[in-house]
Inverse folding.
């Protein structure tokens, strides 16, 4: 990509669009390649079987099978799982493309914060998915299992069943991005640690409402599976915000000190 920048890293508007086009293209290609690799991983490592384990345990049936209504359903289910896997595999490349496009417009301190924040987001997303798979999903399936009766004869269809599971896993992964959102808002100066502490009660209420929508079940399930981790993540976000503003205050003090020393240097000459 031989686009020219001046000494300050600035580019003409059309060159920005050209660079953006290439960044988006490389991101799409990396996702496509990741999807191809993901399809092989999903097929050979039997990811579908891993997603079936919580269902079979909840139904106490190790031979439980999902039905499909169209000859193409198994292929498209595998393809969807491959796309999700491809997005995860391509995440580092997409992050690099985003960073490469934005970095000339960022200050050094912002550059140092961007990449760790993005990779922290990936780690938190995977942590949320793991919590959903190993803890929340089994409890949720057992909760729905309580409503079965002798008058009901259910059949689990592959698209609806896996769609429910994947949505739950993704929901946990997305809400676990809370500290990264707080960090980004702090870097932009939109929130402060004092503001976050003052709104702690409101945050707990909001987390409770969010948990009630994401995780059906009783109060214990909501507290353990969603509320408690999100409250801890909110506190972690406050910790990150404190670090951001300490850095801002230190730079402001250094700037003031340099301005105070400058007049004295001039008078001594």
């Amino acid at each position: 990509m031989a686009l020219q920048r001046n000494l300050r890293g600035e580019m003409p508007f059309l060159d920005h669009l050209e660079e953006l086009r290439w960044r988006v293209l490389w991101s799409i290609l990396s996702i496509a390649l990741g999807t191809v690799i993901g399809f092989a991983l999903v097929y050979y490592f039997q990811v579908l079987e891993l997603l079936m384990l919580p269902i079979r345990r909840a139904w106490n049936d190790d031979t439980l099978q999902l039905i499909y209504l169209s000859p193409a359903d198994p292929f498209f289910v595998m393809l969807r799982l491959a796309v999700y896997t491809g997005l995860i595999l391509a995440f580092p490349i997409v992050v690099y493309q985003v960073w490469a496009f934005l970095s000339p417009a960022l200050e050094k301190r912002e550059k140092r914060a961007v990449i760790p924040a993005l990779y922290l987001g990936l780690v938190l997303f995977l942590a949320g998915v793991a919590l959903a798979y190993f803890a929340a999903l089994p409890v949720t399936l057992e909760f729905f299992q309580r409503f079965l009766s002798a008058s009901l004869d259910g059949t689990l269809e592959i698209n609806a069943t896996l769609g429910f599971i994947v949505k739950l896993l993704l929901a946990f992964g997305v809400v676990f991005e809370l500290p990264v959102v707080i960090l980004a808002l702090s870097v932009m100066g939109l929130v402060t640690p004092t503001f976050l502490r003052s709104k702690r009660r409101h945050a707990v209420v909001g987390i409770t409402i969010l948990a009630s929508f994401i995780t059906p079940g009783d109060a214990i399930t909501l507290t353990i599976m969603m509320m408690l981790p999100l409250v801890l993540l909110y506190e972690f976000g406050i910790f990150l915000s404190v670090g951001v503003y300490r850095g801002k205050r230190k730079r402001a003090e250094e700037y003031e000190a340099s301005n105070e020393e400058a007049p004295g240097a001039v008078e001594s000459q």
Summary: The chain has nine helices and no strands. Residues 12-105 form one domain. Confidence is low (pLDDT under 50) at residues 1-8. Residues 187 and 244 are 6 Å apart (CA to CA).
